[in-house]
Amino acid sequence: QGQEKLSCNPRKENRSHVVLCELGNPMKAGARIAVDMELSVSGLEDAGDSIVFQLQLRSKNRHSPNSAVCVVKVPVEAQAAMELRGMSLPATTVLPAAWQAPEGSRRLEDHGLRVEHVYQLHNKGPGTVSGVTLHLAVPSRLGGSPLFYLLELGTEGGMNCTEPPDLNPMQV
To answer: pTM score, two decimals?
Structure first.
């Protein structure tokens, strides 16, 4: 008939988390109760693709103290939006049409203008992410002529990078 707020108490039982809710005592024979529960579950990062709830009614009635266990499987779907931001320093560069690096030079300035590319990978949430792989392809040649000379690769924030095979091939 009416709606009442339940008093529920969480506890641990046999290494499981149990929530015990008192529905009322005594109940009349044949009574029907509908219960809506909202649960907040933490630590879902390692839960896999679902979590399982086992629901059971327990009574002090000697004839049938426990109902059958009802298993409810709730799918878990992690959501996170990744955003890649990038910029070049300087923002624009004009290269000469017929530029040629001196043969065998190990001076950095002989290999063209320095351009630094900075990329930032941001997690916009709401979930956390791990095991993210970013593949970045930088063309080093255009039409058989040098375009970019990849000098170095650096990271911040505990990331691991695999250096490309064409990184600083002349050891400038």
So the answer is: 0.49
